[in-house]
């Protein structure tokens, strides 16, 4: 029902409700209704300019030469909305989308930065760990010419601030937009391959993010953070950079006696839990003997095996999840206030949903507020409702869901029942499908009547 609420809110222009559904309930922005329409289409059709801007910035799809893109353009109520679509280059040019919102924010805000670059009067905050992971040039410079320097001044006349800022954007996000290619002299292969072709004059260059490359290079920071005893297979190959790759850690997180050398910028930026934890412990505490300026924080209620999965997510926005570890990772993600990791766990759990565990999965989704998993379970229940109504546990779940509503009246709806009804009735187009849907609804109504719930 969250999807229906999103469509309704987009038609009304209720941006506060849309923000809640997208950011808190994790509703898919590109979901389509039975008329094959998207939330962005309704916002454009009704002329809600501010809402259109928010949807575009949040990742709503509206690409050139596609049904959705052209429909949004021609269906827009006003010229201002059309101009907004063009400004975002959603229809005429494929829009650059940052795959990793966190690294982009890390660059813009510069939290816990440990180096500053001064380029012709303009200052750029950066992090040695990110630049070293992304560029061997910076790795070498930080170890030699720029060693122990907190402020680095670049005076070369060919380096302009706009180009240097674009390079930093590429290092942090995997993509960038360059209006001026002069001053780009660092070893960035996608730039040199295009600009060195004879007979080509490039004025504007847009680089789409390469998620795999960015994830692999950010994963090197997690590889280096692993304690030596837990590194399996690292350092055996000549092209592996882990042993000779300085990452400049500034925090040691101790789990089950193992020391993980990490970075405050990633842990504090990703998690409010770690932000509060590290701020409270900076005044006094244990220092790492091998690195005297690195504070040590001991983490409890988590095993080092599960923490490794959490750590890789914090650095790469992804981690390896299996049916054996996903519930443990979910509990820790909830404790550490990592909603993105919780969503990854929800996707993994959705793949393992079956008739035997769907009720348990729905309870888990409800407990951890995983709205997509909750909706997935409701859709699955709708498919097997005729067998599900014979289970006593299903009747108890409906009773509990009804009792959980504050000040519920006798005839008020029950969220789970509403969701199941919605999925039974959705996309019913043929007579045989209508008859099958009516049989499922009758089975559900008979169960509700037997447990004295009128909704």
TrEMBL record:
Alphabetically ordered keywords of this record: ANK repeat, Coiled coil, Repeat
Domain (BTB) ranges: 113-180, 249-323
GO cellular component: cytoplasm; ubiquitin ligase complex
ANK repeats: 35-67
Coiled-coil segments: 427-454
PANTHER family: ANKYRIN REPEAT AND BTB/POZ DOMAIN-CONTAINING PROTEIN 1 (PTHR46231), ANKYRIN REPEAT AND BTB_POZ DOMAIN-CONTAINING PROTEIN 1 (PTHR46231:SF1)
Record-given protein name: BTB domain-containing protein
Taxonomic placement: Eukaryota, Metazoa, Chordata, Craniata, Vertebrata
